[in-house]
Structure formats: structure tokens, C-alpha cells
Amino acid sequence: MVPKDRNQGKNQLRVGRLVKAHGLKGGLKLELYTDNPEGRFVPGAVFTLQVPEASPWHGKDLTVREYRVMNGNPVVFFQDVDDRDAAESLVRAILWIDQDVDEVEEDAWFDHQLVGLDVVREDEVIGRVVRVEHFPAQDLLIVKAGDREVMVPFVAAIVPTVDVAAGRVIVTPPPGLFEELPESADTDADPEPDAGPAAAE
Predict the structure, then answer these.
(1) Which own/partner pairs from 150-153 qualify as long-range (CB within 8 Å, at least 24 positions apart)?
(2) Residues 37, 67: contact at Cβ < 8 Å?
(3) β-strands 139-145, 124-134 pairing
């Protein structure tokens, strides 16, 4: 699902999420969704923001001022984000960039490529992707399984394989995600045995 506040009619690729303010000069630590951060976060690169409507950044773009790796962490600086307060206001924002038609990035898919794929667990089709929901913490695949819609976190631990050509995603869900777990008997019962006091010998 592509939010309406992003550019319509253009393919866009989600490339990162701003997770934490860094330092006092407007730096932000990045969670990267791209295999080519040095190519994406070049000075002058413009990103569309996915933020809540209440955010002061709603409907605005960001332009990269500098990108560097500091203590092993990717950190980005943007134009007009000059102090820690401004950086804090951008925490959890998701960054999108226009993608060339011929451009392909590993482990990146458009929503329309995922919708309609079979969901396979242990070689058995258990559902179908009906839509994708984007949230700041993570994306969710909404899977129609029987008469239920199941929200599947779109992370490698649960969705290790996406094979668009084969029309399927392979899932390794935790217990209880696709089926009800049996409730333990008498979970709300008194922990003491039900039987009467033992007879004295």
C-alpha cells in the first residue's frame, strides 16, 4: 500500500528508517533497507518522508547533506536539520526515493509484486498475500488464510524467502500466528489440587 502523500505515478523504493538522533548537529542513525547506502545517501539526494499526518514533516522531502559511518552505525545529515531537536522530530520516519524503471535492488519489492503471492509453510500453501501495511517499526504482510486475515511481520526471521517468479513467499511463523494454540487446561483454576484432603494414616 503506497500512502497517498507520496508521489503518485512514480515507482518508489523504501531505503531506510530514521531510528535515533545522533549528536548535537542534526545527525540521525539509520536502519538501512538498501544494499547500496553510499550510492543512495549521496549529498543532494532527495527523499520522500513517510510520517504521521500530525508530524510537522508531513508532506515534506529531505535532502541529504552528508552520510557517514560512525562507530559502525550509518548516520545521515540532512539540509535544514541542524540540531538535535530537529533530528528528534524525525525519529521513526521512513525514507523513500524514486526508482529508475531499470533499477533492481536485492531484497526490495514493490507492494504490487507481493500482493497475490501464495504463502507457503513446510511446502503447504496456507494463504495468500492480500496487501502490505507499512509501519514505522516494520512492514506487515496481510495474509488471507481461510476466513481470517493474519498479520505477518515482514522480517527475514519469519519470511526468509520471497520468490516473485515462482509466485510465493515462504514463511517460518512462530506457533500461534496462523492457528489457535490449544489452551492449557484450567489455566484460571486454583493451582491447588481439586481433590479433598488426604486421609490420615
Answers:
(1) 150/177, 150/178, 152/119, 152/177
(2) yes
(3) antiparallel
Q: SS3 helix, strand, coil % of the chain, rounded to 5?
A: 5, 40, 55
Residues 6+ apart with CB under 8 A from 51: 57, 58, 90, 92, 93, 94
- Confidence at residue 183, expressed as pLDDT on a 0 to 100 scale: 60
Banded pLDDT at 5 (limits 50, 70, 90) = very low
**In which element (H, E) is residue 38 found?**
helix 37-40
The model carries a pTM of 0.50
Contact assessment for residue 40 and residue 76, using Cβ atoms and an 8 Å cutoff:
no
pLDDT at 84: 92
**Amino acid identity, residue 150?**
V
